[in-house]
Amino acid sequence: MRKIGVFVCHCGINIAGTVDVKAVVDLLKDYPGVAYIQDYKYMCSDPGQNLIKTKIKELNLDGVVVAACSPTLHEATFRGASESVGLNPYRTEIANIREQCSWVHHDKAAATAKAQLIIKAAIEKVKLDEELQPVKVPITRRAMVIGGGIAGIQAALSIANSGYEVVLVERQSSIGGHMAQLSETFPTLDCSQCILTPKMVEVAQHHKIKLLAYATVEDVSGFVGNFKVKIKQKARYVDWDKCTGCGICMEKCPVKVPSEFDEELANRKAIYTPFPQAVPNKPVLDSAHCTYFKTGKCQICKKLCPFDAIDYTQTDTFIEEDVGAIVVATGYELYSLKSLPEYGGGKIVDVIDGLTFERILSASGPYGGIVRRPSDGQVPREVVFIKCVGSRDPENHFPYCSKVCCMYTTKHAMLYKHRVPEGQAYVFYMDVRADGKGYEEFYQRAATEDQVVYLRGKVAKLYRENGKVVVTGIDTLSNRMIEIKADLVVLASAIRPAAGITELAKLLKIGIDQNGFLTEAHPKLRPVESLTAGVYLAGCAQAPRDIPDAVAQAAGAAAMVTTLFARDYLYHEPIIAGVNTDLCSGCGICVGVCPYAARSLNRSKGVVEVNEILCEGCGACVAACPSGAAQQKNLTDEQIHQMIKAILT
Amino acid sequence: MEIGYYPGCTLKTSARNFERTALAVLELLGIKAVELSEWYCCGVNFSQVQDNLMLQLAPLRTLMKARDSGFTRILTLCTMCYNTLRRASLFLQADEERQRIINDFMDRGAASYRGDEVTVIDLLTLFREIGISEIGHKIGRSGIDLKVAPYYGCMLLRPREVAVDDASDPTIMEEVLQSVGCQPVAYPMRIECCGSYQIVNEPAVVWQRTRLIVESARQNGAEVMVVLCPLCHYNLDSVQLEIQRTDSRFQTLPVLYLTQLLALLAGIGEGNDWSLHSVDPRPILKAKGLL
Amino acid sequence: MFEPRIVAFFCKWCTSAGADLAGTARMTYLPNSVNIQVMCSSRVDPEHILDAFRNGADGVLIGGCHPGDCHYKTGNYQTLKRVTLLKKMLTELGMESRRLRLEWISAAEGQKLARVVTEFSEEIRRLGKIKVRQL
Fold this sequence. Notes:
The structure holds three protein chains of three kinds.
Chain A: E1 4-9, H1 21-28, E2 34-40, H2 46-59, E3 63-68, H3 71-84, E4 92-96, H4 98-102, H5 108-127, E5 135-137, E6 142-146, H6 150-161, E7 165-170, E8 184-185, E9 190-191, H7 192-205, E10 209-213, E11 215-223, E12 226-233, H8 248-252, E13 256-258, E14 267-269, E15 271-272, E16 284-285, H9 291-295, H10 300-304, E17 317-323, E18 325-328, E19 332-334, E20 351-353, H11 354-361, E21 382-389, H12 405-419, E22 424-429, H13 439-448, E23 453-456, E24 459-465, E25 468-475, E26 480-486, E27 488-493, E28 495-497, H14 501-508, E29 535-537, H15 547-565, E30 570-572, E31 577-579, H16 589-593, E32 599-602, E33 607-610, H17 620-624, E34 630-632, H18 637-648
Parallel strand pairs in A: 1-2, 1-3, 3-4, 6-7, 6-18, 7-10, 18-29, 20-27, 21-22, 21-27, 22-23
Antiparallel strand pairs in A: 5-30, 8-9, 11-12, 12-17, 13-14, 15-16, 19-28, 24-25, 25-26, 31-34, 32-33
Helix pairs in contact in A: 1-5, 2-3, 5-18, 6-7, 6-15, 11-12, 12-13
Chain B: E1 2-6, H1 16-28, E2 32-35, H2 52-68, E3 73-76, H3 79-92, H4 96-106, E4 119-122, H5 123-130, H6 132-139, E5 147-150, H7 172-179, E6 183-184, H8 198-201, H9 203-219, E7 224-227, H10 230-238, H11 240-246, E8 255-257, H12 258-265, H13 282-287
Parallel strand pairs in B: 1-2, 1-3, 3-4, 5-6, 5-7, 7-8
Chain C: E1 6-11, H1 15-24, E2 33-38, H2 46-54, E3 59-64, H3 75-92, E4 100-104, H4 110-127
Helix pairs in contact in C: 1-4
């Protein structure tokens, strides 16, 4: 018979308020196997843990049950305490009498009775718990970063500067992301490209970074420390080994395509780099628009290329990379104006989104930094900025705050006033959220020095009339209806996770929240980790955020990666499913059930074998095994049977 | 196809042009609208009373009658009736507490009502079911160079739960007009409120709304406006001559029910009592060869 | 009033985490079930379910991740197959198959967990005490 110690926590009044802890102790003190039982106010405190440790030593306990909060909170704490005094940690079990008992029931008698059953089941489990050792798993000290915007760039550089190799995968032909499109950045108004391009170049030149541009992640297998990633290198139709980036092909290509980078305010060619400072600064050929691909004629680029780098026969290729950790930094896109019928549904040319206005403001943009409106190129005299377009609108669009719009709209209005001092800028707002360092001062500057008119209210309607965009709304502070005949309207439309995030999340087995953003492991304490070990999050893929926050989070994710890589081995939970070869008939049913290919049939021996590193311990094979040969360690059929009996008697 | 038909009060009086032409057009499209043997005022007037229960009783009584007569769907022409009946159905659906209060009050025992037994539909939704191209095929005419401003108002679109189309950017009337060979006019005021019952206490509000809506349609080239609501028709049509008397620059615009236009396009000339119009639509209709 | 005894098998990643969330959010539900936490719902052998009924459980509730969200990729599909088949068997054995219920409850669905547990407890209460012929 085991000598089991049972330690019942009051958790202040969190447990003791509903569960009669003393009664529980009293009822279980003679339960078979219980050598010691004691309650305590806060078992997770130092004195609480010391009590457990002392009693293990003093009474030579060989099993411990801690009846307390959910095992996700303190299982590790209590197992650590046991281990520190020589008791195998896998012989310490948690009975969850807080989250699944005291907090969800009001009836004291019923909660006390239920707590007792929960503890009894845990005692029965411990009785049959074996001493286990964690499974040692080697680590591949190489990371992958998915997404080459500012967050991905920061994560890649931080990891690479720590001495580890990084594979950076970017689906566009250049890294830089949306930050490369921005004109100037709040609240300091420094030029976005001036601070970004040196980092982009550093990525390109870093000997520890392997940059895979124009590539996408197709499949991910394996687990923390040992991922295998299949990447599709999209056909560029340009041999980048030969190409020097001279640009003759782009200059001579006769096909014009609306430029995605310039938000369709200008054109690019069918063979192109998205912008002149692109990294890598080599073109790709867009086969959907290329005349040669459509008609079989043209080939001007091929004829003119001095290095014979154009290759129309290129196809998509697939690359496999082994990495130990993955950082997801896939960023955002703006909510499409087409989804906003109340703001013209994208049909009014002079109603644009924030990124389009960034291109208009940008000195390297299609208008050379002169503020013009898209319809007729006139300099707008009255500009209306509308915030919370799609955001904070749970009835029609999304409930969340997009976070960056307050400040970029302030910046937009301010930059517009700097360029067109005689013009008038209006901002329709619900709130001004200026919560970052220097942000409130920046907003005050716009409202006072630059005389931007802030109108607190929502826009009811906007429509085109006589070459103007008429904006009607209400100013809730003066309670007046407002009508502004604007030359240009800029919508701060909602930040959405980049397209394809759902599919990628599936591949990585990480969660997505109700708004489509990636879910962090804990909203406060583990903000850069996903729920899948070894997969980390950075930037707007997780939630809308501005540049400093994205950079900080990326550096945090990189620190998590290097923390992982600093270890010699990973230790895998040993609650894996083994095989009793005496019972195994080699039928192979479990092999097909295993989602990890951890099981294989050894035909010569006629039994199934388990790869302990691959086994994740789900137990599907155990339930499938017809002979009882497959058993999960410390959750055997016998243990479950005893737990059922304990609950029901 | 047969469908239950709830007329509502005005359709028998000031909006009889609407009813007559609508029923004729539906018949042409193979729909037999069977008028309910017993019906009451939809109850919209009670929206002016601070008693939500009263507001629901009248429409629910009509819906119960419809159910008891064996109908699972009823058509309304008047958009105010549509709005009132539809919202009353939604008010009751999936809310046992409300069902209990209403049924207790009505004291109808086993014949209590849940709200989902009868579906209320409007004319445009029925048109969509029939198929816009089918309507174009049966009614459409080529060579009609008539610029028509479709006016939705609020009752077909608000609140969103009862909207017959995208509440911010509806297209269904435009689609119908296009299919029958007219030119729909795009103008920003098509979903503005006409002023509704303010005509009783604050006619100035209606004057201002009508002027806004009509001028917007005119500026964008409209030769005639079509509506689906008797009250919108009254507001938009009746005050135009008065506006013109105070301001001679104001240009009037004839206002028709959509079904009047469709009937004329289909060659159905009868059913219209032109004395019910303030702004006489006959000159423009004659000029376009529709009369 | 008859108080049924219910054995619950919740997977660690979704349903048990959902149960923890119900607790953290102080939702309430009936106290008739006790959870045996398994790593994955696919660990639940039909034999465990029969074992529970044989030992006097009036109902068995199994909670797993939503289809496509299983922490172990495909475990919940195995569970679905097994439970579907077992429910048919229960009917043939003369038992109400409603005494066995499978639900997909995610880590974010504390509310759903509370609702399902209460709903199931009430349903079993209506069905009454289980009658299993002792073998």
